[in-house]
Known about the structure:
This protein is mostly beta strands. The protein has a domain of 140 residues. A hairpin with a 3-residue loop joins strand 15 and strand 16. The chain starts with 27 loop residues before the first strand and ends with a strand. 45% of the residues are buried.
Amino acid sequence: MAQQAPTALPTETTPGWRLGFQSLETEHREAVELEVTGELPTDLRGTLYRIGPARHEAGGERYRHWFDGDGMVHAIHLDGGRAHYRNRFVATAGRAEEERAGRRLYAGFGTRPAGDNAVERFRHAVRRFAKNTANTNIVEIGGRLLALWEAGHPHRIDPVTLETIGEDDLGGALGRNDWFSAHPKTHPSGDVWNFGIGYGARTRAHLYRCRTDGSVSREITVTLPFPSMVHDFALTERHAVFVVAPLTLPPVPLGMMLGSRSFADSLRWEPRRGTHVGVVDLETGETRWHRGDPFTMFHTVNAWDEGGSVVLDVCAYPDAAFMRTLFQLMTGNVTTHASAWPERLVLDGSPRIRRQRLSATSLEFPRVAPSAASTGSPRTSPAASSASPRASTSPSAPSPPRRRERTSSPGSWFRSPGGAPATSPTSGCSPWCSTRRREAPSCASSTAPTSRPRRWRRCASRTPCPSASTATGWRPPEAAPRLGLRVVERARWCHDH
Length: 497
């Protein structure tokens, strides 16, 4: 059946969440000073970077999937009690080619190749299948600010002007067709690890190590049990962990090769395969596989070594229904409501996965404090959550999500919590602020929880945060100077302005 591009979302009387799926075309290449509500500490210095899909059409044709929009970087620079804002599209080669042509030329994750008929789509599939949208996460690795998209090379960004310097092969570590995923992890040693998936006769995950001196090398290659979509991984002090869910590509994806289907259209839910989890020894490369009942996931929460076992927390979906939700977001009419649940997987000497649900509240786009990564910290910050129907029998409301703040010295970079697109959800995939601060954040007030220091209060403000713009469904207005710098989130614990 022929695909139909969703119609553009209405621009008037649109529910707030839908605004995040309208295109943002305005760039502020020169720094614009923002209005600050309250007072910023004068010694709070640094830049908060955010990234996410910003253009959801090409040549008037709307993309079918949230993940297909061209990436835009946002930056809020703080210094001396003042705040300045810039935003700029990542100048990818595919975006430039489409702008010159005045129409869509590329396929996306959920949008099939361009063309009005099968012959044109096949031609596009052969010549230029997918565009590197550089829209999922923005990270600093080895002194380089990189915009990430999991099916291609990172793009290097100027940290001041946000100008795109170009694709980066990380000093030759990435081959022409190698991928570098959007969710790198920092090892306790300070090295950054990431992976890239390679599909073919055998599906493989290549592990890359980015050392503190800036050098990058491919360390380990892991063969996966079947061609699964793997978006994220986890890292402990001694292991890398991959969740291989039964959301798979066919051995020969003819529809994708012929241009009649996108990557997402080609994925199949095959619960009979079960879910496999691979534990990779970072020293020897030896991989130990565990198998369990079927579930799938986008994001890991945290992982750590515990004796001879590895403990992994994930946001687990019971099936692949969430894939329909991601398509429906682009139409403005979501009828499939899928939730991920925080689950703990224990990977010990048994080949079976031991699973435990951690909460009756759903969880997605998680974030742990960097100091707690690869440890058994119980604190997790959700970017999106909702009460489970099973939890509705409780007479009391679920506890609000709490936010752990990152501390750093003056002048260091702030960073997106890494998305999805936020994420988000990926922004980074996470749609909420995650900043490094010397002082506590400023927000409105109500009653302080007893488990917090007395200065912390629950934020009552409903004003969205500029840095959460891409993934939350709120965007900076065209007149950026009127932006208020009020850093808040749902049920966020803050202190007074």
